[in-house]
Amino acid sequence: MTVKQLQEEILNLKNQNDVIILAHYYQPIEIQEIADYVGDSLGLSRTAKEKASTEYIIFAGVDFMAETASIINQDKHVLIPNYESCCPMAAFLTPEMVREFKREYPGLPVVVYVNSTAAVKAESDICCTSANAVKIVENISQEFNVEAVLFGPDANLADYAEQFSNIETIKMPDKGHCYVHSQITVDDIKTVREKYPKAKLLVHPECIRIVRELADYVGSTARMYNYAKESSPEVNEFIIGTEIGLLERMAQDFPDKNFYLAKNKLVCYNMKKHNLELIRYLLENLNDKAFEVKVPSEIAKRAIKPIEKMLNFS
Ligand code: SF4
Questions:
Q1: What is the structure's pLDDT at 1?
Q2: Residue 36, domain CATH
Q3: What share of the chain is helix, strand, coil (3-state, %, to 5)?
Q4: Which of 65, 139, 169, 295 is a plausible cystine mate for 151, CB 3.0–4.6 Å?
Q5: pLDDT value of position 50
Q6: Which band of pLDDT confidence, cut at 50, 70 and 90, is reported for residue 242?
Q7: Residue 11 CB: number of other CB atoms within 10 A?
């Protein structure tokens, strides 16, 4: 069976069932093509909250994203095509570690990146994404009337938020990172810039600071997408410093522009654990509990507050 035929089968099954498919920009392009909504963490959180009126949500993303969708849609069934799709960055921070940091720094608000487990979110005051981290740090520090916040698990995003908010971010832990973004080096940028001297360099805030400082634009996946979309016609070459899925999406949506990866193999293997066959299986077995993501209600009740606070702030 060809990819096209499989996609058609999936779309037919989807139309016969009360289901919506959400996919992150880092998903394989053939999954993005059959999704009802494609976006970054913030966009998908909003969509899950505001637009998912169906009984079932199939979430093609990593586990914390499906958990977030489940927390804000307690009455719905959130299904993940492959439950081994986890984010290694989220594993850098445990709820015990957050409690320890809170004991060490009493009175400071806890900001956690949405790339964290539900149990960690439950320990926080507010969540953030790469799109709103600076604004969230500014707002929460004002609310608590402090000059520093606790921030985890990504030390690079924490550094980025500190750089542009002028509020100190105490990293929980100081080495939390994304293996995809943090592998981009200054030498990689020099090499790719030499090859494509006219291209604009767009990188993600999860990159290390010295790489961010070489970029023409630093932003979340959705913002990079919009940057390329809104660029004038003469700006038609872009070097992309994030996961390859976004590049594939942009290349498809903007055929008149050229996109190059900042380095080879910018692949999140955890995101790529889903495939069309697994999605078809789910559509044929919507009540298979093995694929349902359900956060224990005691944790969900506490985790929903920082998520909603973020959505209200941004
Ligand atoms: S790209 Fe990085 S932060 Fe995103 S899911 Fe993969 S490992 Fe986690």
A1: 86
A2: 3.40.50.10800
A3: 45, 15, 40
A4: 169
A5: 77
A6: very high
A7: 14
Instruction: Tell me if 311 is assigned to some domain.
Output: no
| CA pseudo-torsion sign 112, 113, 117, 118 | positive
pLDDT at 42 over 90: no
Cα gap 82→63, rounded to integer Å: 9
* Ligand 1 centroid from CA 112, angstroms: 15
Q: Which atom of ligand 1 is nearest to the CA of 268?
A: 6
Cβ of 189 less than 6 Å from ligand 1: no
276-298 pLDDT, tens digit each: 999 999 999 999 999 999 999 99
Mean pLDDT calculated for residue range 93-112? 98
- What is the tally of helices (H) and strands (E) in the chain? 14, 12
Whether residues 216 and 276 share a domain: the answer is: no
CA of 23 to the centre of ligand 1 (A): 14
Q: Looking at the CA of residue 61, tell me the nearest atom of ligand 1.
A: 5
The residue segments making up the domain with residue 139 are 90-177
Nearest CA to ligand 1 atom 3: 178
What is the Cα–Cα distance from 150 to 147, expressed in whole angstroms? 11
